[in-house]
Amino acid sequence: MSKTPDETEKTEEFPLPDNQTTLLCIIQQLLGFDRARVYCSDGKIRLCRIPGKFKKRMWMKVGDVVLVAPWDFQPERGDIIYRYTSNELQKLEKKGLLKELKDLLG
Predict the structure, then answer these.
(1) 23: closest CA among 59, 62, 66?
(2) Counting beta carbons within 10 angstroms of the beta carbon of residue 83, is it exposed (0 to 12), middle (13 to 18) or buried (19 or more)?
(3) What's phi and psi for 40, nearest 5 deg?
(4) Which of 29, 33, 86, 89 could form a disulfide with 37 if both were Cys (CB 3.0 to 4.6 A apart)?
(5) What does 60-94 look like in DSSP terms, one character per residue?
(6) What is the pLDDT of residues 20-59, one digit of tens each?
């Protein structure tokens, strides 16, 4: 039995940063009250909100790589819109997207 192309290449799609509306960030500190301080790929530290749909379903910890959408009216703040898993981080590494974030951290 041979597998169809749909079964062999069944990859989960995950959101990628586009550098205009979303940025790759690393969680530096969890502040409580659904807030986190994150270090972003543009070199800024932002205070971000963890939306209600992630509060109980997806636990976040210090050092996680997340996708952040900065607010238009207050750019030093933003919303965490996605947390990357270890498999997704490997795919981001292959695409070279984590390189700039690692360069900024040291």
Answers:
(1) 66
(2) middle
(3) -100, 165
(4) 29
(5) --TT-EEEEEE-SS-TTEEEEEEE--HHHHHHHHH
(6) 899 999 999 999 899 999 999 989 999 999 988 877 777 8
How far is residue 68's CA from residue 2's CA, in Å, rounded to a whole number?
41
* Parallel, antiparallel or unpaired: strands 77-83 and 23-32: unpaired
**How many alpha carbons fall within 13 Å on the CB side of residue 83?**
19
Q: What is the pLDDT of residues 59-99, one digit of tens each?
A: 889 999 999 999 999 999 999 999 999 999 999 999 888 88
Domains of the chain are 14-105 (2.40.50.140)
Greatest alpha-carbon pair distance for the chain in Å reads 56
